[in-house]
Amino acid sequence: MTAFWFTGILLLLYLFHVIEKLYKIPWLKIEFVFDATWVVMYLIAASLAVSFGPEAYIAAGFFGFCAMVMYSADAVLKSFAIQRGELAQGERVINTQRTTVSSPTY
């Protein structure tokens, strides 16, 4: 249930552009660690569910493996975004001021 609530809260933060306002927080790294952690947890839980035996547990294990694949794909995409130095949401324009001094012509 934790993965559901964390993902839902992140969805709301993205929808209302809160992520864009708090750009100093490394959101992509937080999401990457979250995704990688849940990949391991879903792998363990789905493996245990499938090995238990009854059909209902096998079905639960199948959906656990599906969730694991989706979280692992998201983790891979987050790692690529971190390597490219992308922002989590929006575009931040950095304005630099340059002053040029020209020497006087005589």
In short:
By secondary structure, the protein is mostly helical.
Describe the structure.
The protein is built from four helices and no strands. The mean pLDDT is 90. Helix 3 runs antiparallel to helix 4. 70% of the residues lie in helices and 0% in strands. The chain is elongated and about 95 Å long. It has helices at residues 2-15, 18-21, 27-52, 55-84. It has a domain at 24-84. By secondary structure, the protein is an all-alpha fold.
Notable traits:
106 residues, Marvel, membrane, transmembrane, mainly alpha, 4 helices, MARVEL domain-containing protein
Largest sheet: none
Spans with pLDDT under 50 lasting ≥5 residues? none
Strand runs, count:
0
**Mean of residue pLDDT?**
90
- Choose one word for the global shape: elongated
Question: C-alpha Rg, in Å?
Answer: 22 Å
User: In DSSP terms, counting alpha (H) and pi (I) runs of 4 or more, how many helices?
Assistant: 4
Helix percent band = 55-70%
Series of H and E elements: HHHH
Structural class: mainly alpha
Beta content: under 5%
Please give the alpha-carbon distance between the first and last residues.
77 Å
